[in-house]
Amino acid sequence: MYVAVKGGERAIDNAHAWLAEERRGDTSVAELSVAQIREQLSLAVNRVMAEGSLYDPDLAALAIKQARGDLIEAIFLIRAYRTTLPRFGYSEPVDTTRMACDRRISATFKDLPGGQVLGPTFDYTHRLIDFALAAEGEVPDAPTRDTDPDASIPHVMEFLNSEGLIEEALPDPTEPPDLTREPLEIPAERALRLQSLARSDEGFTLGMAYSTQRGYGRNHAFVGELRIGTVAVELDIPELGFAIEIGEMTVTECETVNQFQGSKTEPPQFTRGYGLVVGQCERKAISVALVDRALRWEELGEENVGAPAQDSEFVLYHGDNIQATGFLEHIKLPHYVDFQSELELVRKLRREAGAMELPEAAE
Predict the structure, then answer these.
(1) How confident is the model at residue 4 (pLDDT cuts 50, 70, 90)?
(2) What gap in Å lies between CA 28 and CA 89, rounded to an integer?
(3) Cα 130 to Cα 183: distance, rounded to the nearest angstrom
(4) What is the DSSP pairing of strand 221-237 with strand 271-278?
(5) Is the pLDDT of residue 140 over 80?
(6) How far, in Å, CA of 11 to CA of 34, rounded?
């Protein structure tokens, strides 16, 4: 039978106090500051901002500290805080051709106007533990690169587009939906899919993208261009009649070049996959571009081979780590009544099964 739980509130308070003690750790060790997390764990901060749908490095760093480094918990904190903020309006689409690039590479063209910029990357490091970091010494300053902040850096895809070898990226005149204010609905248009993928769990999206490379979706891709840098954010002011720059933010953009055999209405050509993510999150941006291309099978007239990455409902509904975490972790909370009812049902079924076996045993 069900027995009421007593002392729950006091136990919860004690659990919170213990959590705070564990979060602080050994008090003889200097406490991490928000500024240290923001500056030295910047990739973790960028992931929290991207999947939390809120660009604020200080808040993301604070959430990481509060969550003891559990990034999904930090993302949950950021999303919850985000719901308390007023909405003043929508910014203009960012112009990534005017990005101040810290990193810009292409796997399809060696020589680019503006050059390949390797930037800060792990790509060429020897994945060996650097014990010199344990000495906590100062690192030398990196060489600076002269750039023109007003220079326009064209996208690599435009070279293919000028020859008609890749599908043209036509602007969509319709206003895109806002996933942060309206629930996801299936079927979802591409703008909504890209929003969902941009804030989906990095590990899940990476797994979906990897599946396309292994043949689950026939989606062989090249990285046409990957760029990371700062873009201006502009807001249209009705009283002024024009948009003004209100700040800037770091984004990661990836465009992939994908094979396409053509269809009844389209000639053989390359097609595009696209990913744009807040912060420096290049693994995520590449994954989004690969999955975006896999989800476009219907509009391109391709065959659905039953690959997981081609199923928009599966990908979009299961990629949200906050929804997944909430549903998964709720099963560790009290379910005493539910279990007792199922326990009684199993006991009843066993008694009935035993009673039906008795006559046979007597013979």
Answers:
(1) very low
(2) 47
(3) 45
(4) unpaired
(5) no
(6) 30
Distances (CA, A) of 361 to 349, 356, 357, 358: 18, 10, 6, 5
Residues β-bridged to residue 274: 255
Please say whether the dihedral angle defined by the alpha carbons of residues 215, 218, 222 and 223, taken in this order, is positive or negative.
negative
Tokens of 143: 């060489």
pLDDT at 150 (0 to 100): 61
Between CA 236 and CA 245 the distance in angstroms is: 9
CB atoms within 10 A of CB 282: 25
Tokens representing 31 are 């406490």
At residue 103's C-alpha, the angle toward residues 99 and 104, to 5°, is 80
C-beta separation of 205 from 287 below 8 A? yes
Average pLDDT, the chain: 86
How many CB atoms sit inside 10 A of residue 73's CB? 17
pTM of the model: 0.87
Between 79 and 112, the higher pLDDT residue: 79
* CA–CA gap between residue 1 and residue 302 (Å, rounded): 57
Residue spans of alpha helices (H) in the chain: 8-24, 34-40, 42-52, 57-66, 71-82, 157-162, 190-198, 202-213, 282-295, 312-318, 321-329, 336-362
